[in-house]
Amino acid sequence: MGDLILTGVSFGRTLLGVTTRPYETYRRIIDRASLWELACITVLISIYCFTARIQVVAVVLTYLVTVGLFWLASRLLGGKGTLSGFMVGWGYTLIPTLIWFWGTSILYILVPPPRTTSPQGLLFSVIYLLFSATLLFWKVTLSYLALRFGLRLDLKKILIMSVIVLPILGLYSIGMYRLGVFRIPFL
Amino acid sequence: MTDALYHKFVKRWEEVVDLPPQTVGPLTPLYKSAVKRLKVMPWPMLVIGSLFMVIGLYLLLGSAITLLVSILQRGI
Q1: Contact between A125 and A113 (Cβ < 8 Å)
Q2: Residue B76 has what pLDDT?
């Protein structure tokens, strides 16, 4: 029980860290590589999936595919990180995704689409896009840190790796869409 | 005080040895300047970046951004 509380507190501190001090927090996350933190992230995602009636298996599969692709590509490019460190690091990049899905789900209930071109509709659209883009940039920042510290790669190799992996993830997302699993992939 | 400074130095030294600092040729000062603002409390930078992106989208799509928002809202 004590360990559980300790893990919870540690996870909470790390969450605060990735929000306010992402750079040094990510160094710590990768060094520590605690798989318990990954379990905490899985619990948070499972709560959302249960509420939104999304298959947890599909989310976990997407996470594993993403991690696997980046890991394989990093091996080709000479990455030296540990798989556990990268897995935990990439796990934290799902926090912005989760916040976006929660926010969008709540807004779907409060202000259901379609949006109109009225001043209120435009204002809502601008605020919603601002919310989405801010989370996207946060996600990009965390992803970069996960790749940089988790796989020990420099910017050039990260860009090369992204050119390799992102189209494959795009095809995977289209496949999931066609199968009716996701309309927007939980990446 | 000296001990604390020494430990800070050793920690930083280990970090640099472990993973050399990122350089991007002549753009290194610009890169360092941008990254410095993202290391601690990145939110002002993230919001400003998003604001530019949304303004760009509005200039590009006009009132059709409402269509984009409808698609995104329906997407989950």
Answers
A1: no
A2: 62
Domains in chain B: boundaries: 1-40, 41-76
Of A125, A134, A136, Cβ closest to residue B66: A125
Residue A115 to residue A4: CA distance in whole angstroms: 44
Distance to chain A for B10, nearest Cα, Å: 15
Mean pLDDT score, A114-140: 93
A141-169: b or e for each residue (b if 16 or more CB lie within 10 Å)?
bbbbbbbbbbbbbbeebbeebbeebeeeb
- pLDDT value for A52: 85
Residue of B nearest to A148 (CA): B19
**Cβ A104–B19 below 8 Å, yes or no?**
no
pLDDT at A2 over 90: no
Of B54, B66, B70, the CB nearest to A130: B54
pTM across the whole model: 0.91
Distance from CA of A1 to the nearest CA of B (A): 33
Q: The complex's ipTM?
A: 0.87
